[in-house]
Amino acid sequence: MKIIKQPKAQMHATVDSVEADASQAASRHTVGAPVSALPLSPGNNSEVVATAKRRLIANADKRRIVLAAAACTKPGEIGALMRREGVYSSALATWRRQYAAGELSDATSKKRGPKADSARAELKQLALVTRERDKLRVQLSNAQLVIEVQKKVAALLEQLDPLQKFASP
To answer: Which domain holds residue 89?
Structure first.
């Protein structure tokens, strides 16, 4: 290896001329180039960030994969099936449980939100009937009170009627 000794001033001049030649060459190459081929400025962030999106698999596809896995008899067939379908073993195990429970049929699709509780619905119905019964009891007691008053008024009128018979002749 041979070292060439140059004065410092001359070395800096050589570096500056090399940089100038490189920038002129770069500008010549990018004049007619498409925008995607142009070099990016240091401030431009060109990183594409992938947004994770959960893959939704229909119940029919889950059923098909579970049945295909059940049909596998040779060693390694289930692994090949899972790689081909892009499915993890934990998902397959969950789908097998759902299939055994009958949750993968098209007729009974799972709905989101709070589940209907039959015991709670019965308690709600019972509370409604109890309120209605209490309201009817109050109305009945009011009606009985009115009937009692009417009976007393009728009795008083009967007592007054014989007295008026004697007074008017």
So the answer is: 59-101
Residue 117 lies in a domain: no
Q: What is the pLDDT of residues 125-156, one digit of tens each?
A: 999 999 999 999 999 999 999 999 999 999 98
Looking at this protein, which amino acid is placed at residue 162?
A: P
> Total structural domains in the chain?
2
Q: Under the phi-then-psi rule, with left for phi > 0, alpha for psi from -120 to 50, and beta for the rest, what region is 2? A: beta
- pTM: predicted TM-score of the whole model, two decimal places: 0.37
Cα–Cα distance, 136 to 147 (Å, whole number): 16
For 2, other C-beta atoms within 10 Å of its C-beta total 3
The DSSP secondary-structure symbol of 105 reads -
Read out DSSP for 27-86?
A: HHHHSSS-GGGSPPPTT---PPPPPP-PPP--HHHHHHHHHHHHH--STTHHHHHHHHHT
Q: Looking up tokens 């008899």, which residue turns up?
A: 73
Q: Is residue 17 part of a domain?
A: no
